Automatic annotation (TrEMBL):
One term of GO molecular function: ATP hydrolysis activity
Ranges where the ABC transporter domain occurs: 37-268
SMART domains per record: AAA
Gene Ontology biological process terms from the UniProt entry: L-amino acid transport
Keywords: Amino-acid transport, ATP-binding, Nucleotide-binding, Transport
PROSITE patterns: ABC_TRANSPORTER_1 (PS00211), ABC_TRANSPORTER_2 (PS50893)
PANTHER family reported for this sequence: HIGH-AFFINITY BRANCHED-CHAIN AMINO ACID TRANSPORT ATP-BINDING PROTEIN LIVF
Biological classification of the source: Bacteria, Bacillati, Actinomycetota, Actinomycetes, Mycobacteriales
Protein name in the entry: ABC transporter ATP-binding protein
Pfam families: ABC_tran (PF00005)
Family: Belongs to the ABC transporter superfamily.
Cell cycle recorded as keyword: no
Length: 275
């Protein structure tokens, strides 16, 4: 199907923008290929009978930063949780390269090279920074010193303040501990849930700069963000979710400059939209 063909919806012909076309299931199948992580047609939710994600498609290629943006309640964090096996998937599948990881347990995924940083409660406040990082690599304690050096290169604060309790840190510092802890296991892919949420503009900037730096070390990143503009600036590709469905997908740059996306999602992310 060419971009100008449009789709038949309810008997009428609907012209799709390139970013809408790319978000169709057929295009997903065509493009996802041998992705590092891919989710095909996943339907998932928290409560019986209530689907939050409906037939969602997603893929991440090696070396990419892929952003997930959309209005409040669109299901962005839910998609990340579904990828990391934290909520039951009712239909569809998630694959890590050739392995089916649909609803796999977190420790299995961590061992397979997937790191996940939740939005909140992502550090042990009573433990020091160093102890938090030890928790991140409890499956391979002998590698602690080696990995600590690598992670401290990315986040010097973690080394400088290693004996400080995480509970006494600012929100931005805690976020660095949480990201550092997830990196201890040398993941090939990092799932970040709204890492800039609630941070001062300076720390928000730091988060995005660190995401690029982490990515430059070879870690692929899935980034759920409420700061959509900033997210699209650093990501290779982005997905716009709306009401639990794929609405648009394209390169970060094209989404950021797409008048429809600007109108619907970048002006204000306050509410969900009708399209
Ligand atoms: N633990 C839960 N139990 C039941 N429903 C939930 C739970 N967590 C989220 N939801 C619901 O799922 C929907 C999607 O939430 P989600 O957090 O994925 O949205 P989001 O796109 O990440 O939004 P935000 O940017 O506001 O965090 C919302 O309607 C929310 O109320």
């Amino acid at each position: 199907m060419s971009e100008s063909d449009g789709l038949q919806k309810g008997g009428g012909k609907v012209d799709l923008t390139p970013a809408q076309l790319a978000a169709t299931p057929a295009e997903h199948q065509r493009r996802a290929g041998n992705a590092l992580i891919r989710a095909d047609d996943i339907t998932a939710g928290y409560l019986p009978g209530i689907d939050i994600l409906s037939e969602c498609n997603f893929y991440l290629d090696d070396g990419e930063i892929v952003g997930i943006i959309g209005p409040n309640g669109a299901g962005k964090s839910t998609l990340l949780k579904a990828l990391f096996g934290l909520i039951p998937i009712r239909n569809g599948s998630v694959r890590l390269r050739d392995t089916d990881i649909t609803s796999a347990k977190a420790h299995t995924l961590v061992q397979a090279g997937v790191g996940y940083v939740p939005q909140t409660q992502n550090v042990f406040p009573a433990l020091t920074i160093e102890e938090n990082l030890e928790m991140g690599i409890y499956l391979r304690p002998k590698k602690f010193a080696e990995r600590f050096d690598v992670v401290a290169d990315l986040f010097p604060l973690l080394s400088e303040r290693r004996k400080v309790k995480a509970g006494s840190l600012s929100g931005g510092e805690r976020q660095m501990v949480a990201m550092g802890r997830a990196l201890m296991m040398e993941p090939s892919v990092l799932l970040l849930d709204e890492p800039s949420a609630g941070l001062s503009p300076m720390f928000q900037d730091q988060v995005f700069i660190r995401c690029k730096a982490i990515n430059a070390t070879g870690v692929s990143i899935i980034l759920v963000e409420q700061n959509a503009r900033r997210c699209l600036q650093i990501c290779d590709r982005g997905y716009v979710l709306d009401q639990g469905r794929n609405a648009y997908t394209d390169t970060g740059e094209r989404l950021r400059n797409d008048p429809k996306i600007i109108e619907l999602y970048l002006g204000t992310l306050a509410g969900s939209s009708e399209k």
